[in-house]
Design goal:
Distance between the termini: 55 Å
Family: Belongs to the GASA family.
Radius of gyration: 18 Å
Keywords: Signal
Structural class: mainly alpha
Protein name: Snakin-1
Largest sheet: none
Number of strands: 0
Helix content: 55-70%
Order of helices and strands: HHHH
Shape: elongated
Strand content: under 5%
InterPro entries: GASA
Length: 90
């Protein structure tokens, strides 16, 4: 009985810690700020790039690496479109 209880407790602790860590990383504003400033570092209209990158980062919880392309790394970021059907995320 004790062995079952200890096993269940250990499983619960492992699962809860692994599920909570990624969620807190993305909720941190500095995560999106850092990723978007890297992504928009060579953008022609930096303030617009940072705005839309921040919106997409908060919704998708990820930002592709590099300053252009690599959108395959984040399908949600890749698939967001504006009203005209053009890509929303820089």
């Amino acid at each position: 009985m004790k062995l079952i209880f200890v096993t269940l407790l250990l499983c619960f602790l492992l699962l809860s810690s692994s599920l909570l860590e990624p969620a807190t990383a993305y909720e941190d504003a500095s995560y999106c700020g850092k990723k978007c400033s890297d992504r928009c570092s060579v953008a022609g209209v930096k303030d617009r790039c940072l705005k839309y990158c921040g919106i997409c980062c908060q919704e998708c919880k990820c930002v592709p690496s590099g300053t252009y392309g690599n959108k395959h790394e984040c399908p949600c970021y890749r698939d967001k479109v504006n009203k005209k059907g053009k890509p929303k995320c820089p």
